[in-house]
Amino acid sequence: MEISAKTKKISKQTLFHNSTPRIIAIVAHKGGVGKSTIALNLSASLAKKGKKVLVMDLDSQNNTGLFFGVQDYIGKIPTMSDVLYQTTTPDKAIIRVRENFDLIQGNRMLAKFVMEKGIEPGSGLILKNIMDENASFFRQYDYVFFDSSPSHSILHLNALLAAHTTFVPLICDFFSVNGVAQIQQTIDEVNQNIDLLKEYDPEGIYSYMNIGLIIANMLDRRMRGRVDKALDVVKEMYPLKLASNPIRVCSQLMDCPEKHLLIGELAPSSTGSEDFDLLAEEVLNLV
Length: 287
Ligand SMILES: Nc1ncnc2c1ncn2[C@@H]1O[C@H](COP(=O)(O)OP(=O)(O)OP(=O)(O)O)[C@@H](O)[C@H]1O
Ligand SMILES: [Mg+2]
Prior knowledge:
By secondary structure, the protein is of the alpha/beta class. It contains 13 helices and 7 strands. A 7-stranded mixed beta sheet has the order 3-4-2-5-1-6-7, sandwiched between helices. α2 crosses α13 and α6 packs parallel to α8. Bound molecules: adenosine-5'-triphosphate and magnesium ion (MG). The site of magnesium ion has 5 residues, from α2.
């Protein structure tokens, strides 16, 4: 039997199973669609609203570390690869980047992890097991986000098995709409693995994965016809999943990484800042 978010009709109301923290993997099989931008600016908006947030970077590009200009800490403070290789515990790898906002940065060693662990049986559960073993540490956070790489890898599988749900950025073009379908396929495969895990380990706590929110990004109203067409397709394919608050194209968002500033700090009156605050409100209402 095919198990998918669509067939199981998981609604937005049941994403997190009342768990603390709420764990969200930001995924897309396409590069440059705004995964890191959303992970960081959405986290910042939630942190501003008093929620305690952790971003874990599962991309060897380490764009989150570069964003905050903390890449020089590599070698002094452990990173995600040290956590995944279990040479340290997550609490030792935390960098406090803002009030209420912590980061565990990625680094190039994540690419080695993909090469080495990609073929090892059971290696998809490494992150979930680490988070279960360190549950009391993670409980201090309201939200944990995984920023992920565009390519499908064992890191993706780790993110999907450890998270409660996924947020999928969408650029309103044909390829990106097709990319959401690819994510759904991956999630269906993960859910089939969960069925097997439940048979193998009846005591384990495994929850089915789903697409929680599809976030339209870089929305350009000058392209209204094409944008509306893409959004209509997504609404039809994934009812209830499209975030009510899209992120409009905002040139200041492109300046943020170089200035090491979040959009709310660099340009508090910009559309980007407004959109992320509205999106954060929407996320706060997900249970
Ligand atoms: N709404 C937006 N308006 C303008 N620029 C944006 C917007 N969202 C993201 N960008 C810019 O687009 C570029 C790609 O964004 P980002 O790095 O977040 O994508 P990504 O999906 O994480 O990429 P990768 O797959 O390489 O990790 C960045 O320069 C970012 O500043
Ligand atoms: Mg990125």
